[in-house]
Amino acid sequence: MRSTTITSTTTTTTTPHHPNAHPESSPKPTLLSLPPELHLQILHSLQYPDRLSLKHTCATFYRCADTSIPYKVAWLVDRRARRLAVPLGTTLGFRSDSEFCTQEVKGIMERRRWHLECRPRGAGCALGSGECVKRGGRTWGGWWWVFWVLGALGALLVGLILGRGGVEGLMGR
Hints:
- The chain is mainly alpha-helical.
- Helix content is 45%, strand content 0%.
């Protein structure tokens, strides 16, 4: 894995304190305003899909986010060890991100992004260790389909009512 150097390109401007100044007028901290050492620590903790996403946020991270072959392989090995889906296609290329991100890989990344691989009810998050905040606890978890069916039935009932001239038409009056 190659070593990465990040240089800070941000400048800081200070304004004199004014008694009528609003807190909203002060500049909000951004990821790029963090020290370069923290950028490297963040990058070293990310798996391949997260590195790829960060790489495409700005020119600074495009230059320093390494998404080379070792990161792709480590991501695939980690997924296999967790018994998660891995791409089985024979057209998977490792030379570039565009070769690697086939439709199958894009589908896996999309399922990962929406936490669809996470086990509900505190069994752990597939993105990392610990409980998944998206699928466990007070969220819908494995019951999402019930809400979808109820919504579809409600839409169907409204369509029937409106198509037959309201409630009276539906009752046959």
